[in-house]
């Protein structure tokens, strides 16, 4: 078996939602590579129910320290302004710097039709998935620009990239992460800040909670797509060895793939004027053809 030699010695990384599942795998892997890790987890259920609990974050820190690594636990609310700012402050106070962040925290309520998602749930999901990621990056950004270097890994999902029935709110928010990733990558480039996103393919408490999936399928996913298989991808994006920014990578099951947003040539009117409504009906096959796809690097490059 090949040995993974990528190191992150001395780097300080904040990982939210790191008490269990994918976040735990990220934290353990980063610490094993020499990073100093702030292990953040509120300790609630996947739908954010339950009271705050030091247990999950503290147990991961114990695992890291038992293996000879360096970590500190936090139960700060990773969705709020105060909580995200306190995470960056904790990193700097404990370890003297902040070099990278992994905005992994999230909640999940699958199996709800669009009309069954009430405002309270939507606001709660927005707070952690969208505003939490925004606020965590915002809290670290001045530190990154000051030192001329920073690494950000955001977390999207296949539900956000391609859609998933019964997950309208989750899909909405995870799709937004893609736009945020690419915009922050453009803004961060002059300051040495790299921003990328991963779309994990892995078994977790969230995948186990998905309704309508046969038990044998979940068991196969548990065996073939462990959270630890995604962790090396996150580590690589936090290192200097992989010089990419603004990318979305689908990762898991021993595979990593680049996810692109493309635009087809489409149709144009014969006389160069505006298209008519009937043009779409009459030329629908041409309109939907993917021949000649282009993949703009920014909004300024669209056809």
Mind explaining what this structure looks like?
There is one protein chain. This protein is of the alpha/beta class. It folds into two domains: 12-259, 3-Layer(aba) Sandwich (Rossmann fold); 262-303, no CATH class. The protein has eleven helices and eight strands. Helix 1 crosses helix 9 (231-238). The longest helix has 29 residues, at 119-147. The radius of gyration is 21 Å and the shape is globular. The mean pLDDT is 92.
Say which CATH homologous superfamily of the largest domain is assigned.
NAD(P)-binding Rossmann-like Domain
**How many DSSP-defined strands?**
8
The biggest sheet amounts to:
8 strands, mixed
> Treating each run of at least 4 consecutive H or I residues as one helix, how many helices?
11
Q: How many structural domains are formed by the residues?
A: 2
The ordered H/E elements are EHEHEHEHEHHEHHHEEHH
Which band does the percent of strand residues land in? 5-15%
**Distance between the ends:** 46 Å
Instruction: List segments where confidence is low: pLDDT < 50 over at least 5 consecutive residues.
Output: none
CATH topology of the largest domain: Rossmann fold
Based on the coordinates given, report the CATH architecture of the largest domain: 3-Layer(aba) Sandwich
Sheet with the most strands: spatial strand order: 3-2-1-4-5-6-7-8
Task: Return the structural class.
Answer: alpha/beta
Radius of gyration: 21 Å
**Which word captures the global form?**
globular
- Give helix % range: 40-55%
CATH class of the largest domain: Alpha Beta
Overall pLDDT confidence: 92
């Amino acid at each position: 078996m090949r040995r993974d030699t990528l190191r992150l010695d001395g780097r300080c990384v904040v990982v939210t939602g790191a008490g269990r599942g994918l976040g735990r795998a990220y934290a353990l892997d980063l610490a094993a590579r020499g990073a100093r890790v702030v292990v953040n987890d509120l300790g609630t259920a996947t739908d954010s129910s339950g009271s705050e609990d030091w247990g999950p974050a503290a147990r991961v820190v114990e695992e890291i320290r038992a293996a000879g690594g360096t970590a500190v636990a936090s139960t700060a609310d990773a969705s709020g302004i105060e909580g995200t700012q306190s995470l960056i402050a904790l990193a700097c106070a404990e370890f003297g710097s902040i070099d990278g962040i992994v905005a992994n925290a999230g909640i999940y309520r699958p199996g709800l039709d669009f009309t069954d998602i009430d405002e309270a749930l939507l606001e709660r999901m927005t707070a952690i998935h969208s505003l939490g990621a925004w606020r965590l990056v915002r809290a670290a950004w001045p530190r990154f620009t000051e030192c001329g270097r920073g690494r950000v890994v955001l977390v999207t999902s296949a539900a956000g990239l391609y859609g998933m029935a019964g997950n309208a709110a989750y899909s909405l928010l995870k799709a937004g992460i893609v736009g945020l990733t690419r915009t922050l990558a453009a803004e961060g480039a002059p300051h040495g800040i790299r921003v990328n996103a991963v779309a994990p393919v892995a078994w977790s408490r969230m995948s186990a909670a998905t309704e309508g999936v046969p038990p044998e399928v979940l068991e196969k996913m548990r065996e073939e797509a462990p959270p630890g298989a995604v962790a090396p991808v996150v580590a690589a994006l936090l290192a200097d060895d992989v010089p990419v920014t603004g990318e979305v990578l689908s990762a898991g099951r021993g595979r990593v793939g680049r996810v692109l947003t493309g635009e087809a040539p489409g149709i144009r009117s014969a006389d160069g004027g505006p298209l008519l409504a009937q043009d779409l009906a009459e030329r629908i096959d041409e309109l939907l053809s993917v021949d000649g796809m282009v993949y703009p690097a920014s909004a300024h490059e669209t056809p």
